[in-house]
Each structure stands twice: as C-alpha cells, then as structure tokens.
Automatic annotation (TrEMBL):
EC number: 1.11.1.6
Sequence positions that bind heme: R73, R113, F162, R359, Y363, R370
Family: Belongs to the catalase family. HPII subfamily.
Protein name: Catalase
Domain (Catalase core): residue spans on this chain: 29-417
Reaction(s) catalysed (UniProt annotation): 2 H2O2 = O2 + 2 H2O
Residues of the active site: H76, N149
The entry's keywords: Heme, Hydrogen peroxide, Iron, Metal-binding, Oxidoreductase, Peroxidase
Highest taxon in the source lineage: Bacteria
Any GO molecular function: catalase activity
Function noted in UniProt: Decomposes hydrogen peroxide into water and oxygen; serves to protect cells from the toxic effects of hydrogen peroxide.
Annotated stretches, region: Disordered: 1-25, 512-539
Length: 685
C-alpha cells in the first residue's frame, strides 16, 4: 500500500517551494517588479517639504505593512486604558484657537490607552520597550488625538522606514523568537546599519523603558506640531504629559521576575488605583517656539530623533488630566478605540516632520483592516461628543441611518447641505505654509547629526542610571549571536560615549573601541529620573507578619502609613486572621506563594512566633530580594533577625524600630519609601 500521507506531505512541500523566495543578493523591487532606486526617503516637495501622495512606493510599502497582522494591532497590541477628564489651567488664546484649551472652568472627557510597542497582545507588560501613551480628547469641536509614547524621540526620521524597524524588532520570522524583546540579532543589525536610531536606543536601554507603572510614566507627542491662533499666527509646539507622582522605574532583574510573577502588573496597578480612588494625574506641558525662531537651534525642530532640551525651551504646564473611571469592557473600548494623529481640531496643525507625515496616512489605513471597514468612527468609544454630518455612506459596520435622497456635494435638492463651514464658523483651515522645491527622495542635511543628542542623554544621567544603561546593552547584545553585529554596535556607540561603549564591549567579548565621542559636553538635568518628583502616595508596602507578632506599635505604624497615602498589605505563610501578643488582629491579604517582593515598593518586617521556621525562611528570602533591588526596608525589633549580617542594618534605606523611637521610626520609614530606591546601598548577597 502506498504511503498516502507521505505523498500528500511531499505535494504540499512542492507547493510551498513554488512560493519560497530567497531575497539574498537580489535587487529591491515593488510588488509589481519595478526596481526601486531609493528606500531610505519618502518623496517630498523639497528636502524639508511635505511627503507627496504620488509616492507609490511609500504607499505600497506602508499599506502592506499596515495590513500584515489581524486582528490585533501590529504594534501597541498589548494595551490597557481608562477614562478621565482634562482641564486647562488658563486660556491658551495667545497661541492657539483650540476650544478645549480656552476655558479653565470646562472639563473635557478623555480616553487614554497605554501600551507596549513590540510584543503581541498576550506578552508580558514589563518588557524593555517604549510605551504608547495615546489620549483621545472628546472636544465640542470634534475628537482630538494626541498619539505619543513615553519617550520623546523615535528610532527613525522618515515613516518609509517604519516597516523595516518593526520587522527588525519583532520576533524573527524563521522561528518566531523572541517575543516582546529587542535582545536579538535582527534588531541590533538594524540599529548598527541605521544610525539615526542612536538617540532612541539610549532611551530604550535606560530605565525609562521599564517604568514602575503607567501612573509614573511621562508621555510625549514625539513630533513637532503647530499651534495656530485666531490671528493666523503659527507656533511650533511639543506636547508633554508629566505624571504628578513623578517618573520612576523598576530595575531589570525585577522586571524579568515581575513578568513571571504577574505579567498583568501594569494594568492591574492602573485598575486597582482607579478603583481605590487614587486617581492617576498628569499635567499637560507644552514647549513653544515662534515660527520665526525655527532655525535658531543646533538641531532641526522637525527631526523626530531630536528632543528640545527643557533648559533651552522650558515646558509650560497648561492643564491637568485625571483618570477616574475604568473601562466597562476591554474589547469594546480598549481594543476598538481608534487613534490617529490626523484627528485634530482648529488651532492644532501639522509640520513637515517626515515621520509624522507618514503616520497621517498609516493610521487610518490600519484601522480599515483592524476594525472591518471605514465606519470605525461609529463605534461607541470612537464617536465624537459633537454631532457629525457628511455625505459618506454605507460600508461595513454602518450604524447611522441616513434619510433623504442626496449624498453628494454640491447639490440643489437639499439646498447644498451639509455644506462646508467657514473658518469663522469653526471650519478647519490648514495653516498656509509656503512649500516649494523639487520632487526628491532625500533627507535634509540638518537631519544628519545622529549622535549629539544621544551623548546629551548620556551626559544627563546619574551614575546609577549610567550603570543600568551599560548593563542593558550588555544583556541585549549578549543575546546577539552575530559577532559582526556586536562589533558594529560597539563601534557605533563609541561615537556616543567611549565610556559607554567600553563598558559593554568587554562584557560581550568585543575589543573596546578607540576613543571616539561626539564632543558634546552639554547635559540636561531634566532627563534624569533622579531629578523627578518623589512621593510616597500609592506606594505598596509588604508587611511581613506571623502569629504572635509584637503588636504594640504595628497597628499605629500601618495607620500612619495609610494616612499619607501609602498602601500597606499584609503578607504571611497562609491566609486568615493573625493575632498579636496583645490580641490585635490583622487579616492576611497575600501569602508568600501568591506574592513576591518584586510586586511591592518596600518591605516592613514585623515577624512573629520564633517557632515558625517556614515563615522565617520565606521572610528572609523576601527581604533580601527587596534589599538587592535597592528598596526601602523597615524592621521591627524582632525583624532585625531576618537580615544576614549586622552591616546591613546600617545601609541606606534600612530603618529599624526601637522601643523608645517609635515616632522617629515611622517618619524615617516614610522618608525611605519616598526616596523610592537607595542606589548607594552596598549590596551583599
């Protein structure tokens, strides 16, 4: 008898081989077979002009990329969101006619979605990655979307390279490994051969790429936009979200363990804080440059790989956003929300940033495949709060039932309605920027400095932050198999900082580079998280307690911690109610099996029965991991026994209670928790 299964397998193999393509050594073409002469730059009206719609290569490349994944988002698939409101502090009439930025007494509804970029919908939330920070303002003039990240710059300068970037950072296609990680060959090969990525890579290798929570994460509009006022005057503007609790992160070892212990750590944190009434708050800041000052800086204002140093162009805080309501249904709201940087209102306009220009096409195109057609704006989460009328009809997912026989402009049968609104009536009029130039695929010379701001970022870091960046490069490149790629990356970042490049070169088996450097000595203190706001509010403290605990001061300490906004949670060997020596009762909220030190910001070790060896062993491990992550440690008199050495008692951030110093103890513990991390601690494991 013939082996039919083997025959079918070979037949299928032959079918697959017919469609197998080997790209190596071939010339780049379009999908129609046309050879492409340039794949770095989109077609523009002049080197600094807008991208042209006739660029068929860009449109084909971007359209194909936008439709590569269904149904989850190609990027930013792993996300979580909440509702809230925004209120401006004072009228911004001098700079913009945007209605929601005029009246300090008016609250504008918002919907905010936070996300990781590279991972799939089911990936862990503590990946080393940029984070999306997208805000939809439901204004009376229509929806305005501020679609940004928690990092103010990006990897590339021209949108035509976005598919290449994401192809490089996504799991490698031959084995679909690794998930939600940039620590692999193709990403670093892309970095080494696309050196405009240097600045963004510095940010993603820093602590900014592993935030403590969405609530302690900055947001940026990334691009340079325009404010336009009633007089028609234009100002360049960059948008910032500043978290009221400050900007804070976890350490890399901690991040990896959190992904294993609780891959939903960030969304759980956001959900619980809103449910508890600890509403996340962010101040909206703007950097504003008059149009006539466009060329007064040593970088191009339109370059998306560059930031505007806050010391040179101050951030003006103009309003506050408060997230105060969780979603009712994650799919209907978080997954179906459709953001687009082209959703603007009068008074906010675009610039010729070539990355922004490409996004203005790409986002609508993406929604068409994700949400099933052109009517995604009719989904409840996407509907504007103001009425909308036009001649668009039918299509997948149509909700509106239009009456009448007319659906075109101009018309006489319906008195030419709906008719365009004049500028005075609120009609959107694009800023009339003069544009002239040859049709070219090129990039302005002013975009070609790739290292100065990467060096500025390095110079601005504290010593612990610099050490973490070196460790991040060492880890990431330690996962790269190609020796050539490792060497290229070391050579590339020698132009940023010889100290940095030498620091990770010796860890990955590459000869340290000869001295390079960009020659930049300037720093920007605002870029260091060490200079961020520090607050004890909403910090979680694991309180390690066992039966027969010495309860004289414990209840009072927990009450004081709660009064200042700290969240103490009792951890023990098993669930139930614990009784102290004087009868005080504490209910256990977590066990050592269901909790871990990486899920808390600090530890307060109370202790209990000296006979419970299991509790003592688990408490010691819990405390020592928190200690190794530089977290605040509070110890009762009995809790001192859980440390391995007397020397640890004198280390930074370790606070010990004595019978006659109870008031001082809780004050010192709160101060230790406010500090967040104690980097000058001598780690002795």
């Amino acid at each position: 008898m013939p082996d039919n299964n083997k025959h079918e397998t070979n037949q299928k193999k032959q079918q697959l081989e017919e469609y197998t393509v080997e790209d190596q050594g071939k010339k780049l073409t379009t999908n129609q077979g046309l050879k492409v002469a340039e794949d770095e730059f989109s077609l523009k009206a002049g080197e600094r002009g807008p991208t042209l719609l006739e660029d068929f290569h860009f449109r084909e490349k971007m359209t194909h990329f936008d439709h590569e994944r269904i149904p989850e988002r190609i990027v930013h698939a792993r996300g979580f969101a909440a509702h809230g409101e925004f209120q401006v502090y004072e009228s911004m009439k001098e700079y913009t006619k945007a209605g929601f930025l005029q009246d300090p007494s008016k609250k504008t509804p918002v919907f905010v979605r936070f996300s990781t970029v590279a991972g799939s919908k089911g990936s862990g939330e503590l990946a080393r990655d940029a984070r999306g920070f997208a805000t939809k303002f439901y204004t009376e003039e229509g929806n305005y979307d501020l679609v940004g990240n928690n990092i103010p710059v990006f990897f590339i300068q021209d949108a035509i390279k976005f598919p290449d970037l994401i192809h490089a950072v996504k799991p490698e296609p031959h084995n679909e490994i690794p998930q939600a990680a940039s620590a692999h060959d193709t990403f670093w090969d892309f970095v080494a051969n696309n050196q405009e990525s240097a600045h963004m890579v510095m940010w993603t290798m820093s602590d900014r790429a592993i935030p403590r929570s969405f609530r302690m994460m900055e947001g940026f509009g990334v691009h340079t936009f325009r404010f336009v006022n009633e007089q028609g005057n234009s100002y360049f503007v960059k948008f910032h979200w500043k978290p009221v609790l400050g900007t804070h992160s976890v350490v890399w070892d901690e991040a990896q363990k959190i992904n294993g212990k609780d891959p939903d750590f960030h969304r759980r944190d956001l959900w619980e804080c809103i449910e508890n009434g600890d509403y996340p708050e962010y101040e909206l800041g703007v950097q504003i440059v008059p149009e006539e000052d466009e060329f007064k800086f040593d970088f191009d204002l339109l370059d998306p790989t560059k930031l505007w140093p806050e010391e040179d162009i101050p951030v003006k805080l103009i309003g506050k956003m408060t997230l105060n309501r969780n979603v009712d249904n994650v799919f209907a709201e978080t997954e179906q929300v459709a953001f687009h940087p082209g959703h603007v209102v009068p008074g906010i306009d675009f610039t010729n940033d070539p990355l922004l220009q490409g996004r203005l096409f790409s986002y609508t195109d993406t929604q068409l495949i994700r949400l099933g057609g052109p009517n995604f704006h009719e989904l409840p989460i996407n509907r504007p709060v103001c009425p909308f009328f036009n001649n668009q009809r039918d299509g997948y997912g149509r909700h509106t039932i239009n009456r009448g026989q007319v659906s075109y402009h101009k018309n006489s049968l319906a008195n030419n309605t709906p008719e365009p609104a004049s500028e005075k009536e609120g009609g959107y009029v694009h800023y009339q920027e003069k544009v002239e130039g040859h049709k070219v695929r090129a990039r302005s010379e002013s975009f070609k400095d790739h290292f100065s701001q990467a060096t500025l970022f390095w110079n601005s870091m504290s010593q612990p932050e610099k050490e973490h960046i070196i460790q991040a490069f060492s880890f990431e490149l330690g996962k790269v198999q190609s020796q050539s790629v490792r060497e290229q990356v070391v050579e590339m970042f020698a132009h940023v900082s010889p100290e940095l490049a030498s620091g990770f070169a010796k860890e990955i088996g590459v000869t340290p580079p000869e001295v390079r450097g960009s020659g930049v000595t300037k720093s920007s203190p605002a870029l260091s998280q060490e200079n961020s706001t520090k607050s004890p509010k909403t910090r979680k403290v694991a309180v390690l307690v066992d039966q027969e605990f010495s309860s004289k001061e414990v209840k009072r300490v927990l009450d004081v911690l709660s009064e200042v906004g700290i969240q103490p949670e009792v951890v023990s060997s098993r669930f139930g109610v614990l009784k102290g020596a004087d009868g005080t009762e504490l209910e256990v909220q977590h066990t050592f099996l269901t909790a871990d030190s990486v899920l808390f910001d600090a530890v307060y070790a109370v202790g209990g029965s000296k006979e419970n060896k299991s509790f003592i062993q688990q408490a010691k491990a819990f405390i020592h991991e928190a200690y190794a992550h530089y977290k605040p440690i509070g110890l009762s008199k009995e809790g001192k026994a859980y440390l391995n050495s007397e020397e640890m008692l004198n280390e930074a951030g370790v606070v010990v209670a004595d019978d006659d110093q109870s008031e001082q103890f809780v004050e010192k513990l709160i101060q230790s928790i406010t500090t967040h991390r104690h980097w000058d601690r001598n780690i002795m494991m």
